[in-house]
Design goal:
eight-stranded parallel beta sheet; TIM Barrel; 2 domains; alpha/beta; binds glutamine; binds zinc ion; five-stranded parallel beta sheet
Length: 759
């Protein structure tokens, strides 16, 4: 007998019910009981769905009102002192204050830090550990939810975030102190949680240790060994040690040596690891095969998955093999059946959570019956996708094959280009500019909504956007900015705007995935060969340039960022899809140039987050990511100035790559680190121009001019004055005009003061 298992179900709700409940609760329109009832209803629905599909191992405690890492943090009593927590169960107001800041008994307190969950676009709340952190079981949430499901007639397999991953994802409040040192203090709490689950009748627990797929430090290895020595015990439920997002590689012996009753491996990201696992899996150990992609939206190749299941069953015997998704399904949208606007062909290629759960059952059925009758449909669809003209457009294929090395470089090195650009633009020293967007005010959003609902015409909407653009240009002229932008009022989202105009992209109505807490994103689906049927931004840029004598920057989103923030086709390497997008952007860059736009910015905020989880894979990624940027950006004359923008300050790992991108100007985040990161630019002898952000646009505080001046002076200690641009550290779209106006005036004044002093 082979089993099916699920590792986690989206909690956001098919129609974003969690978002609705959270926002109503925060606004006081829903009381606590009402909020908790909405959460319980989401859990009930998920359990029901899986029970109806006949899933053998159904997860519980995969639900979270905000974030599963924060749940763990609260459950083991790691509440930072500023929240003035009195002990005991962490109540909802404290929990949400930790998640998003807010009012507590102690007054206004800031939120805890949030960061990306491995290489997903989900964000978790980072635990903060004191060097002498005490732990206590405040309340066993896993037990509550196990019992709740039991009352619904379902014996679930509770999910816990493993202790080593939990500590590894946290940060210490004291410099130089390692959260892993807290393991001995933490383990008794995990033991208590497991013991209570065992007493309540939990036979298995899924213990998530995704850190096992990363490069591990010797301390982490030691922590794994000592943790599981103490957790694998006779009185405890059996542990399904769960790994995902990559293969185990050199950590496989470690994982197998931990003595857990079962191991889950990701066979979507790392299909080849099956052989090694089968060869070394200890007798009696169960193996859970991650065969259905939990990170993407495609229908599974059930034949290939079945072959892997059979291979495992032959090696181990069928009674300890589980068929599962690669990771929790929380990263996929809920239900394809809600997508009534997608065409039938494309729809047939896709599977969201509900459909993936059905695939698990279909696999088990085929396995049990020995008949592949249930796989016919999947086979047919896969064949249709493989030969569809939408996935293989000859013109795109020909262009891809015709890419030559000289399409990946500018004509002359930066120094020569800079001389040409300097005489062509005649900019003052320390030129000032912004990153692109200006405030997307209530009014802008209201007009867009009205247009979408058909309440105003296309022409009325375009008029409004033109007025808004012109006003923004006049403002920039008035305050004396040197390189202007049009403001991006016509865009809601920097990826969606381009995806909607490119061939090969589709958009869903309800394809939401949780980004963090109450925030969802609806990533585009790249299903086919990418091409640009017509210019995407030229009209706007030409219109904007026609209003001013100052140079107007054309604004594009880079190929890596478009790739990274989409669901990407899985029938060819990501690199290939990225190069196709790059070709489309290259065409746009050339069209902008032909139409008189002489400065073009290609944003790559997701460049760094595309980095693979394992260091040994970085070189290969950086090679194609840089090539994609080069392909997009180098098809112009040397007089044309290419900018790029990345809104973070961690450049150490990607320094050489940044230099190889060879943008004439790069704008980055720098104000929060007080320009310290520029040291690296000096150390690596970065020669091109740099605009280190002089103020943090994420804060509503209006920066003061003297602070910006001193940041610029700091910058000049490490980079040459000819290199330095002056700009904020990201786009201004989330700010209001009352903040933006004085901030930018101050910024221009700071640049002028510097010119006067050094000019
Ligand atoms: N040009 C974009 C803007 O200003 C850049 C956004 C980003 O870096 N995330 O909004
Ligand atoms: Zn940015």
């Amino acid at each position: 007998m082979t089993f099916t298992a699920n590792l986690g179900t989206p909690r956001f709700g098919a129609k974003r019910e969690l978002k609705t409940a959270l926002e109503s609760f925060w606004k006081g329109k829903l009381d606590e009981a009402g909020f908790l009832a909405a959460c319980a209803e989401l859990r009930r629905g998920n359990w029901q769905l899986q029970q109806d599909a006949g899933i053998d191992f159904i997860p519980s405690n995969d639900f979270s009102p905000y974030d599963q890492v924060l749940d763990t943090t609260a459950m083991v009593g790691v509440v930072p002192a500023r929240y003035q927590w009195a002990g005991g169960k962490v109540d909802l107001p404290t929990y949400f204050a930790m998640a998003r800041g807010g009012k507590t008994a102690a007054g206004d307190v800031p939120a805890m830090e949030m960061t990306k969950w491995f290489d997903t676009n989900y964000h978790y709340i980072v635990p903060e550990f004191e060097p002498d952190q005490k732990f206590q079981l405040t309340h066993n949430k896993a037990l509550d939810e196990f019992q709740e499901a039991l009352a619904q007639g379902i014996r679930t397999r509770p999910v816990l975030l493993g202790p080593v991953t939990f500590l590894s994802l946290g940060k210490s409040t004291a410099e130089g102190s390692d959260p892993l040192a807290l393991l001995p203090a933490l383990l008794p709490v995990y033991q208590a949680i497991l013991r209570q689950l065992a007493e309540a009748g939990a036979e298995w627990v899924q213990i998530d240790e995704p850190c096992l797929v990363l490069d591990l430090s010797p301390e982490q290895v030691a922590a794994y060994q000592s943790a599981y020595q103490q957790l694998v015990g006779v009185t405890h439920p059996k542990l399904m040690l769960t790994t995902y997002f990559e293969g185990l590689r050199d950590n496989l012996p470690l994982a197998l040596g931990l003595g857990c009753a079962g191991l889950h491996i990701d066979l979507v990201r790392a299909p080849d690891q099956l052989e090694a696992v089968l060869a070394t899996l200890p007798a009696e150990t169960w193996l859970s095969l991650g065969l259905v992609d939990g990170r993407n939206v495609w229908r599974t190749d059930l034949d290939a998955a079945l072959a892997k299941a059979k291979q495992a069953a032959e090696a181990l015997g069928p009674e300890r093999v589980l068929i599962a998704p690669s990771c929790s399904l929380q990263f996929t949208p809920y239900d394809l059946d809600l997508e009534t606007k997608l065409d039938a062909e494309l729809r047939s290629w896709l599977a969201f959570t509900k459909q993936k759960i059905a695939e698990l059952s279909a696999l088990k059925e085929a396995f049990k019956s020995g008949s592949d009758a249930g796989l016919q449909e999947s086979r047919k669809v896969l064949a249709s996708r493989a030969k569809s003209a939408r996935t293989h457009t000859p013109a795109v294929r020909q262009r891809m094959a015709a890419i030559t090395p000289d399409m990946l470089k500018r004509q002359q090195p930066h120094a020569q280009r800079k001389a040409l650009q300097d005489s062509s633009f005649d900019l003052p020293p320390f030129p000032t500019t912004t990153i692109g967007s200006f405030p997307q005010t209530k009014e802008v959003r209201a007009k867009r909504a009205a247009f979408r609902k058909g309440q105003i015409t296309q022409e009325q909407y375009a008029d409004f956007l033109r007025e808004e653009t012109e006003r923004t240009i006049r403002f920039q002229e008035e305050i004396g900015l040197d390189v202007l932008v049009h403001g991006e009022f016509e865009r809601t989202d920097m990826v969606e705007y381009f995806g909607e105009q490119l061939q090969g992209f589709a958009f869903t109505q309800h394809g939401w995935v949780q980004s963090y807490g109450s925030r969802g994103v609806r990533p585009p689906i790249i299903y086919g060969d990418v091409a640009r049927p017509q210019a995407m931004t030229v009209d706007w840029s030409v219109f904007a340039q026609s209003l001013t004598d100052k140079p107007m920057k054309g604004m594009l989103t880079g190929p890596v960022t478009i790739l990274q923030w989409s669901f990407v086709r899985n029938d060819q390497p990501r690199a290939e899809t990225c190069m196709q997008i790059a070709l489309a952007i290259r065409d746009e860059v050339q069209d902008l140039e032909t139409n008189g736009i002489r400065i073009i910015q290609i944003d790559e905020p997701a460049f760094r987050e595309g980095m693979p989880l394992r260091r040994e894979d970085w070189t290969a990624y950086l090679k194609w990511a840089v090539e994609a940027f080069l392909l997009a950006s180098t098809g112009v004359r040397d007089e044309t100035q290419i900018h790029t923008h990345m809104c973070y300050s961690e450049f150490n790992d990607i320094f050489a790559a940044i230099a190889n991108m060879d943008a004439d100007v790069i704008s980055i985040e720098a104000s929060r680190s007080k320009m310290e990161l520029l040291d690296a630019f000096k150390r690596y002898e970065y020669h091109n121009d740099i605009g280190p952000g002089v103020y943090d646009i994420h804060s509503p505080l209006v920066p003061n001019q003297a602070d910006m001046e001193s940041l610029l002076e700091n910058a000049l200690k490490v980079i040459r004055r000819e290199q330095l641009w002056v700009n904020p550290d990201c786009g201004l779209k989330t700010r209001g005009w009352t903040e933006v106006e004085p901030a930018l005036r101050g910024m221009v004044a700071a640049a002028r003061a510097l010119r006067a002093k050094l000019g």
